[in-house]
């Protein structure tokens, strides 16, 4: 025989009640008729509570009561045959009249005792079960309504009564003996004390009712039918990627639901555990789905943890002072005091120095707890052996749960890495000695981010979501979006990474979407956005959204975003940039960026600062971090100048080559911006700094390519005229090189801490002799690569390769 319990949403509407009946009809009855436990219709218990509270406060409740009645009558009207409706209306009406009288009494007395509170709540389950048993009677000729208050006996702790199992089991068995030929529809949640007064088993207690019946009747299975696909790795409302767990042990299920992760009420586990009855959590709205089985002998799981549970909005109290050190019985005194007054302690941590105790309670218990403690420890507080009690509101607990944690080192490391990288401050930590649970207290504002980040960190088989905020929609920005779009599936399958663009801004507009902007229509969305671009707002918004695994991408060449890098790092957001200005301004700024990023455990990647997508920065970093030392770097890092000298051959003149380069889009609007060597200088400076030299821009010696007349020309046209006028100078250089069978190369060099860029003539033995198009080349001579240098060569400019470099950096952030 099986016990089937249907929760609030499963009895909350006409459709769900029809589904429920279908489930019962299809149930395999070979081992006996099903025993059905029902909750109140969804939301009804909350409504009853609010009516009781309104009445106690002297406010009108009739409107709410009328809504409640209507919800039940609507179901009767839709699901009961006309001839069966009147008896049902009558029975329900009697309940509602009693309820109204009760509430009226509360209103008159302006007093709501726990006893009356429970009695009022009991109408939720009584009405729903009565109504559904009547509907079921149309399908099963042996359906019977059962009031569990007559069978489940408890003490008088109203609100969360403790069950007298022995007596209850006897009563249930006795009753079942007489009625095993009927389909029983039992009210969940409610019970009664010795004086026959109604008690309740705690919020969510219908699950417990099912386990009590299951245990008394030695059921083969207890099924909990709800509105999700079983127990999931986290609350699916908070973590979209949460997935269903196939199996759990009772302890794991208990730990996962302990902090009020609903799905199942923790006390449910005990009777089932004692009798080794499996609990199966199933989805009423997807009955075919296997759901989760909680059982004794689970097969070994490959998952490092089973799930993450959390409780939001709790308060913590911190008591500290020398008076606690070495005092045996101090915590006993503290906690017995709170227990005596029924204050539930959610979590406790004590520092090993015994200097402080931190514990968490529900916000509504704070005031009471504080007063009690201040009274109890009055003398210690007066003598300053204890510091004044500190209360912190708006906190949350996040816990990772799973039996596998016991055998696996590094679990807490992974937890704290994920939290730290996302800037989540941990207020207190507790690890159960069972090692099945590690709990941390964090700020409520960080809970959603923390849950998702920790979920990503532990369930690596799922894709990790990066939230990117992109500045700049020029050539590179646009190309990056195209590449991300084209490689979306590949990224998910091969790298396990999903990139969501959570914000885009250009100089005119900005848009945001925490779920990710569409990579197909971002342009239209940005165009239609009503939000005018404002860099400061863009960055504040990015911080406020507080998304996990967040990356700021600067695809501009503007100095403005640089001002914000430091605060971005301080918000634990990584930065990926192709903007060279940040790294090539003052050395102190360069260093600050690095130090701040490191301090906050985030990444600062700028591969495209030098040689676009070529792996230059990364190579240098790898050499340095593996203990190698750079002796010399030689490089051609200006794609534009390379192009110009590669085409400055035979009978072309310099003027025409520059013009051609400009026409092909290889130069800045004023080609002198390239030919002056400033851009090249910046790259050399960044390389020198990354190679460990504390260098400023003025330390890089630049040999001019252009004669003075070209440099001082007012306009671009004047510049071209000056180039023509100086043709003899360039022709001379070219002829000399050709005579000596050499080529002209503009080469950057770093040696002995000195950086320079010079125009050289190199012969065919030089590694830079053969260079085509706008290629870059760099050779590293190091302690290890001393005989033959390590050379990186390839296209070092263009939107495609630069965007690809930014893309690679982004993926590297994801990998950390
Ligand atoms: P019922 O009314 O059927 O008893 P509950 O509301 O008590 O249902 O519990 C189901 C809800 O629990 C789900 O809708 C889900 O939002 C929430 N929940 C919280 N944590 C989890 C989790 N780890 N797995 C599944 N559901 C969870
Ligand atoms: N109706 C009760 C509640 O909402 C019991 C339950 O649904 O399990 O807490
Ligand atoms: Mg529930």
UniProtKB/TrEMBL annotation:
PANTHER family: HOMOSERINE DEHYDROGENASE, PTHR43070. InterPro entries: AceGlu_kinase-like_sf, ACT-like_dom_sf, ACT_Aspartokinase, ACT_dom, AK-HD, Asp/Glu/Uridylate_kinase, Asp/hSer_DH_NAD-bd, Asp_kinase. Its cofactor is a metal cation. Its EC number is 1.1.1.3, 2.7.2.4. In the C-terminal section; belongs to the homoserine dehydrogenase family. In the N-terminal section; belongs to the aspartokinase family. Pathway: Amino-acid biosynthesis; L-threonine biosynthesis; L-threonine from L-aspartate: step 3/5; Amino-acid biosynthesis; L-methionine biosynthesis via de novo pathway; L-homoserine from L-aspartate: step 1/3; Amino-acid biosynthesis; L-threonine biosynthesis; L-threonine from L-aspartate: step 1/5; Amino-acid biosynthesis; L-methionine biosynthesis via de novo pathway; L-homoserine from L-aspartate: step 3/3. This is Bifunctional aspartate kinase/homoserine dehydrogenase I. One of its GO terms (biological process) is methionine biosynthetic process. Gene3D superfamilies: Acetylglutamate kinase-like, Aspartokinase, catalytic domain, Dihydrodipicolinate Reductase, domain 2, NAD(P)-binding Rossmann-like Domain, VC0802-like. Homotetramer. Residues 319-393, 400-478 form the ACT domain. Keywords: Amino-acid biosynthesis, ATP-binding, Kinase, Lysine biosynthesis, Metal-binding, Methionine biosynthesis, Multifunctional enzyme, NAD, NADP, Nucleotide-binding, Oxidoreductase, Sodium, Threonine biosynthesis, Transferase. It comes from Mucilaginibacter segetis. One of its GO terms (molecular function) is NADP binding. Bifunctional aspartate kinase and homoserine dehydrogenase that catalyzes the first and the third steps toward the synthesis of lysine, methionine and threonine from aspartate. Pfam families: AA_kinase, ACT_9, Homoserine_dh, NAD_binding_3. It catalyses: L-aspartate + ATP = 4-phospho-L-aspartate + ADP; L-homoserine + NAD(+) = L-aspartate 4-semialdehyde + NADH + H(+); L-homoserine + NADP(+) = L-aspartate 4-semialdehyde + NADPH + H(+).
